[in-house]
Design goal:
By secondary structure, the protein is an all-alpha fold. It has one domain. It is about 55% helix and about 0% strand. It contains 6 helices and no strands. The longest helix has 29 residues. The chain is globular and about 50 Å long.
Length: about 130
């Protein structure tokens, strides 16, 4: 008897080891709820994904998906701010360069903390790719 993926069944993915693993998984889950984007993702090759071609498809997803992605990004930015504050509190050094700290988080566009744009998806893909290369 062949084992197959049952529609609607959640598949457990192994931990990627990325400090933004939960954010990555949530973004993927939300994007896969959009039929058009899911089809593009399934037919795209790795070079299309890495080049950012797939990120441009974000403009075609439904309003509900974009709203959910915006919400996820705001939550991730809040989480990162909390990490930065905790790091600052532990160091108690007044000469901390906040922009340098934010640049450590290359998986999202921290200059636009409110909306999830194609650039955010592109940055997330590139960060994951760079980590695994």
């Amino acid at each position: 008897k062949a084992e197959g993926h049952v529609e609607g069944e959640k598949v457990e993915n192994p931990d990627t080891g990325l400090y933004y693993d939960e954010y990555l998984r949530q973004v993927i889950d939300v994007l896969e709820t959009d039929k058009h984007f899911r089809e593009k993702l399934q037919t795209a090759d790795i070079e299309e994904i890495k080049s950012g071609k797939l990120s441009r498809e974000l403009d075609l997803v439904s309003h509900h998906v974009r709203t959910r992605l915006d919400e996820l990004k705001r939550q991730e930015v809040a989480r990162l701010r909390m990490l930065i504050k905790a790091k600052m509190d532990s160091v108690q050094d007044t000469g901390i360069d906040h922009q340098a700290l934010l640049k450590q988080f290359e998986h999202l566009n921290h200059q636009n903390p409110d909306t999830f744009e194609p650039k955010d998806l592109d940055m997330l893909i590139k960060a994951v790719s760079a980590r695994y290369e």
